[in-house]
Amino acid sequence: MKLTILGSGSAIPVPERNPASYLLDIGGQTVLLDSGSGASRQIARAGRTIKEISKLFYTHFHIDHIGDLPSLLFAIKNSDFAASTTSLDIYAHQNFMQFLATFENLYGDWIKNPDYPYEFHPLEGKAVEFDNFVLKLFPANHNPESLIFRFESRSGKSLVYTGDTDYCDSLVKAARNADLLLTECSFPDNYDVKGHLSPSKVRKVVKKAKPKQVILTHLYPNNDDSTLIDRIGLKNDRPIKIARDLEVIQV
User: Fold this and answer.
1) Out of 6, 13, 93, 99, which residue is the most buried by the measure of CB atoms under 10 Å away?
2) Is residue 90 within 8 Å of residue 78, measured between CB atoms?
3) Got the DSSP string for 200-232?
4) Average pLDDT, the chain
5) Inter-residue contact 228 to 218 (CB < 8 Å)
6) Are residues 218 and 164 in contact, defined by beta-carbon separation less than 8 angstroms?
């Protein structure tokens, strides 16, 4: 399992961080987790191509997580190289269908590609079984549709992506003993924002769930400095690092 960080930032534009987006290589497939604005270009900057991607997974509907979807579909439609797969599968909460319908009304054949069609699959229940991995679903404390993803490979490795969430019991359950916890850490403790995690909340999750490795992402500028790991206060307990765009992590 391999994670490529395309965007470790937030809704606030900064030079060094793209909005939320990640490539995950798992079970012989490449999947995209969220696609904040600029994700298509970040894929190219990472030395990858958009047609490697067979599946898109969306944690929720905020623009900094879905903003590049029309651009991605437009780029795929206009690519002149052979696809490695014959279709693109999009997975999200069932209400995501309204966004796809709106995009189709706006852009029509600009994003529809009969040679490389996309198909929407609502994420329901507690888990989705794929050929070479399992996706377990947990409710997040953010928007009504928000989900936390736990990917488990057939080889036994696990990666948890929080999306956007405040502290909740389901987050602890999702992250328990994970090989890698990719967690938002949006704001400092003195600027607590409902629906998001701060250093003290991340510390609480990590102490309870005991993931083997922690990567902090979705950083707003007022929380993004060299003191962040010290403010969490667990660096001697387990590996904790701050995400960097275009970084590749083996799980």
Assistant:
1) 6
2) no
3) HHHHHHHHHH--S-EEEES--GGG-STTHHHHH
4) 95
5) no
6) yes
pLDDT tens digits, one per residue of 123-150? 999 999 999 999 999 999 999 999 999 9
Which DSSP string do the residues of 103-138 spell out, in sequence order?
A: HHHHHGGGT--TTS-EEEEE--SSEEE-SSEEEEEE
For 158, 162, 207, 210, 232, the CA distances from 237, given in Å and listed in that order, are 19, 21, 9, 9, 11
pLDDT cut 90: percent of the chain above it? 88
Count CB neighbours of 121 within 10 A: 14
3 state SS of 38: coil
pLDDT single digits (tens) 74-106: 998 888 655 556 679 999 999 999 999 999 999
Report if pTM > 0.90: yes
Beta bridge partners of 180: 159
The per-residue b/e assignment along 128-165, b for 16 or more CB within 10 angstroms, e otherwise, is: bebeebebbbbbbbbbebbbbbbbbbeeebbbbbbbbb
Architecture per CATH, domain 2-250, reads as 4-Layer Sandwich (3.60)
Domain residue spans of the chain: 2-250
Across residues 47-56, what is the average pLDDT?
93
Closest Cα to residue 138, out of 94, 93, 105, 177? 93
Residue written as token pair 């490539």: 23
